[in-house]
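Checklist before submission:
- one chain only
- standard amino acids only
- sequence pasted in full

Submission:
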Amino acid sequence: MAQIKITQTRSIIDCPEKQKRTIEALGLGRPHYSRIHNDTPELQGMLRVVRHLIKTEPVQQG
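Returned file contents:
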């Protein structure tokens, strides 16, 4: 299964509560924190909610 590296680029201060909870559910919390997740439809929905706060990049399988 494909994987995605998610890096938080902006702070969640002054963001709506839904976006704060989404960032927490992704395992992030502070700018420049990164996590690797499996690419699923559920994850894509979460990323769409916070797309202005994160940067995504594919992980090379190898």
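Reviewer check: The longest helix spans residues 17-25.
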